[in-house]
Amino acid sequence: MRMAMRVGFVEWPENLIADSEQWLSLADDLSKTTVDILVTNELPFGPWIASTPDFDPKLAEYSIECHRAGVVALERLNIPAVISSRPVWEGARLANEAFCLEGGEVRHLHTKQYFPAELGWYESNWYTTQSREFEPVVVCGVCVGVLLCTEVMFNEHARHYRKQGAELIVVPRATGRTVDVFRTAGAMASIVSGCYVVSSNRVGQGSSGPIFGGKGFACAPTGELIDMTSPENPFGVIELDIASVKEKQKSYPCYVTGPV
User: Fold this and answer.
1) Which residues lie closer than 8 Å to 121 by C-beta, 6 or more apart?
2) pTM (2 d.p.)
3) Regarding the domain delimited by 5-248, which CATH topology (the fold level of the hierarchy) does it fall under?
């Protein structure tokens, strides 16, 4: 039988730079708690470049470099698996790629496909992808699906992950101070999938960007809130009970099928 799996989630500051004093302090805090999987916020390193409406190739490349250094810093944490996202080139623009760092290797998990287009979040001007996959991947023995930020608003993908055997859905995000709508979306993703849902967020404000609201959270397979981060406690940990996932996925509304 699989041992209890410990999953960590965070609220990490805007414009986090690998190997800075700020990063070293966060890494030291993480070293004091044992986790099997760490879920970071969306695009955790460097500034939030989508705060400006005009695509800038130099700024895009800077974001890529920040995340290249960030992956190295994440590997030094010596956590069995880290799930995060990073910018990569796709044609003339960027793609937002969710990835897993496990056993010293970086694996592709998912590419973001739903992009906001509004003040502070001009993501549709910066990111694109031809990818259409929403397929779970086994990480540390747990079947994991990824919904990057806005994607959690679309319950059909949480339901699809359940049908593919997912046990945990992770939601790295970069959202503002209005947290309730994302917490509700996370709860609904849990309810329709029977999965645990774990989400991390940015916090703070950049030089010209929006204010990020923090409050990473974890929902049980029933949709109930288990825990949420705060400025006083920016790091949370939950233990997964996979047996409860399997039981919940047999019950309403998880077993309900659509029109035939």
Assistant:
1) 50, 51, 174, 210
2) 0.97
3) Nitrilase/N-carbamoyl-D-aminoacid amidohydrolase (3.60.110)
